[in-house]
Design a protein that fits this description.
Blueprint: H1 21-28, E1 43-46, H2 53-60, E2 64-69, H3 72-81, H4 83-87, E3 91-95, E4 112-118, H5 123-127, H6 153-159, H7 162-172, H8 178-191, H9 197-208, H10 214-228, H11 231-243, E5 246-256, H12 259-272, E6 293-295, H13 305-310, E7 318-324
Parallel strand pairs: 1-2, 1-4, 2-3, 4-5
Antiparallel strand pairs: 5-7, 6-7
Helix pairs in contact: 1-2, 7-8, 7-10, 8-9, 11-12
Length: 326
């Protein structure tokens, strides 16, 4: 990070500590739209507003930002934090899901010079036991980003069949003993439905052994959270819609924390940057043969040691960016 940049913790709050802030601002500033380049004057969409950390940095650098989040508590937090910018008309907070941007009425017909996604769970959501994201003892199994959505984590664990649970643990948690863990969950819920974190921790320990601890719990609780919120399916559906909301020359930047998310983003950006996507043996091109845009990051951008030292969550962050063709 350049010496002129604010300290790494400058945009952190009790709600959340945003990661790779300077890197996000730099990549979003690489737009080449009709409104210019850089961030001053840019019209941006922060599709994961959270507590407003990234948005605060973008506003400070001269952009106008629309913040989108499906968590009403996050919207309230950001509106309070950015009240001055809200009154000045440089910021607005909209309730909705970035995976379903075309269903958000407030964004109908609107396009942007840049779009940012910071996927995953905010620090406040994780620390609030009532939200049920943590494996701390006695925490309810909820994990919903949208508190009105169904099912919650308890519902998923109690109602999914054994094959579906095994798929969740294997695909989203990279768990080699996924089938055994799924069978253990089914066996235990027959005696007593899963309700709190201890229930899932007990099943994990029964299969992985008494020495299993925080790394295993974090990985498998994350797998359940991804399934509850359909995070990978939603991301796969939503990326193209977000791409189509970019102005020509606009930038889409995405921060991921899970290998499945990063793989989806990497492959989408690569495909959009390829001139011909027809099967290799197809004799005649039928896809149009024109790339939709270009990669701005050949490899994922990751946090440096200094940032990881003050924000452990940054360790697993991967930032990729793509620019739509002018």
């Amino acid at each position: 990070m350049a010496s002129a940049d604010p300290p790494i913790t400058a945009y952190a709050s009790d709600w959340h500590a945003p990661v790779l802030v300077a890197e996000c601002c730099d990549l979003l500033g690489q737009r080449t739209t009709a409104t210019g380049s850089g961030l001053p004057g840019a019209r941006l969409l922060d599709g994961t507003l959270g507590g407003g950390g990234h948005t605060a940095a973008l506003l400070e650098r001269g952009a106008t930002v629309t913040g989108l989040d499906r968590d009403p508590a996050a919207l309230e937090e950001a509106r309070g934090r950015l009240a001055a910018e809200l009154r000045a008309g440089r910021f607005e907070a909209v309730e909705g899901n970035h995976d379903e941007v075309d269903a958000v009425l407030a964004l109908t017909g609107r396009t942007f010079d840049g779009i940012l996604l910071d996927l995953g769970v905010s620090s406040r959501q994780f620390d609030d036991d009532a939200r049920g994201f943590s494996f701390r003892p006695g925490v309810p199994l909820d994990m919903r980003m949208d508190p009105h959505a169904e099912p919650d984590a308890a519902g998923l664990l109690n109602e999914s069949d054994e094959a579906e649970l095994a798929r969740v643990f294997k695909e989203f948690g990279d768990e080699p003993k996924a089938r055994r863990l799924a069978a253990e969950v089914v066996h235990r819920r027959a005696r007593q439905p899963f309700a709190v974190s201890d229930d899932l921790v007990g099943a994990i320990r029964a299969v992985l052994g008494p020495r299993s601890g925080a790394p295993e719990f974090a990985r498998l609780f994350q797998a359940v959270r991804i399934a509850v919120n359909d995070e990978l399916g939603g991301l796969g559906r939503g990326l193209a819609a977000l791409r189509d909301r970019l102005e020509p020359g606009g930038v889409l930047a995405v921060i991921t924390y899970h290998s499945g998310e990063d793989r989806l983003v990497k492959h989408a950006f690569r495909d959009w940057s390829t001139a011909c996507t027809c099967p290799p043996k197809q004799p005649v091109c039928t896809c149009g043969g024109v790339a939709r845009g270009a990669l701005l990051t050949r490899r994922a951008v990751t946090a440096g040691d200094a940032e990881v030292a003050v924000n452990a969550r940054a360790r697993s962050a991967h930032l990729r960016a793509w620019r739509r063709a002018p």
